[in-house]
From TrEMBL:
InterPro entries: NAD(P)-bd_dom_sf, Sc_DH/Rdtase_CS, SDR_enzymes, SDR_fam. It comes from the Eukaryota. GO terms for molecular function: oxidoreductase activity, acting on the CH-OH group of donors, NAD or NADP as acceptor. Keywords: NADP. The keyword NADP applies. PANTHER family: SHORT CHAIN DEHYDROGENASE, SHORT-CHAIN DEHYDROGENASE/REDUCTASE SDR. The keyword NADP applies. It comes from Boletus edulis BED1. Pfam families: adh_short (PF00106). The lineage of its organism: Eukaryota, Fungi, Dikarya, Basidiomycota, Agaricomycotina. This is NAD(P)-binding protein.
């Protein structure tokens, strides 16, 4: 059976952590390999606890706002893949500082959210492309938000977050148009009880 390979950003907690936990079921199959990336592997204890599985989980340091870190992570992943392809990339890492409106926001809030939620995923996919191209699946999943849907009309809230996720949606479209051999898609998880979603959210991470 061919090996199946996955890379997930922001795997230290929230939806990224939960995705790795679910993939752990896949890790019961020894032919699955997961790269769980996070900013601080030394403090990602919950993620580290998932390492002992029949399949392989590698924890890779990656800060999506730091191009040097993304390049280093990509090189580490290339080495570990040893010529194999990367089948699924989940650009999950994201931030929402909240409390901003179209006429009331700080430049740092907008630039931080654009850096993390749009530029980060763009660079992650760009630097991982050689490995993605070696796969016969080639799936890039960009974690968007329903809040970024103009048609859904969510009103004034989270203007900077929504701008960054709309940029991510457009990135996904452009990736698909530039590389019709890839499958770039956006995922929308619903309103989930994570640190970002808060305890009042509608659904559990699982
Ligand atoms: N929760 C929801 O209701 C909801 C709804 C729609 C979309 N989403 C999207 O789903 C994704 C995950 O959200 P979540 O609810 O799981 O959020 P979360 O609980 O706040 O977790 C965010 C994750 O992103 C990581 N991260 C943040 N900045 C990073 C950076 N610069 N480099 C690398 N990792 C970074 C965090 O790592 P650290 O532990 O190092 O901080 C953490 O692992 C996000 O893209 C979010 O926009 C969430």
């Amino acid at each position: 059976m061919p090996n199946t390979t996955w890379l997930i950003t922001g795997a230290s907690r929230g939806l990224g952590m939960e995705t790795v936990r679910r993939l752990r079921q896949l890790l019961q199959t020894p032919t699955n390999t997961v790269f769980g990336t996070c900013r601080s592997p030394s403090t990602a204890t919950e993620l580290a606890a998932l390492v002992s599985s029949p399949g392989t989980l590698y924890i890779v340091k990656l800060d999506v706002t730091d191009e040097v870190s993304i390049k280093a992570a990509a090189n580490e992943v290339f080495k570990l893949l040893n010529g194999a392809g990367l089948d699924y990339v989940l650009n999950n890492a994201g931030i929402n500082r909240g409390d901003d409106l179209a006429f009331n926001f700080t430049p740092s809030a907008l630039s931080d959210m654009m850096a993390t939620n749009a530029l980060g995923p763009a660079l992650v996919s760009r630097y991982l492309l050689p490995a993605i191209e070696r796969s016969d699946r080639r799936v890039i999943m960009n974690m968007t938000s329903r809040l970024a849907s103009i048609g859904s009309d969510y009103g004034t809230i989270d203007a900077c977050y929504c701008m960054s996720k709309i940029a991510l949606n457009m990135l996904t479209y452009k990736q698909a148009r530039q590389h019709p051999d890839l499958i770039p898609i956006v995922l929308e998880p619903g309103w989930v009880k994570t640190d970002m979603g808060g305890p009042g959210a509608e659904i559990e991470p699982a």
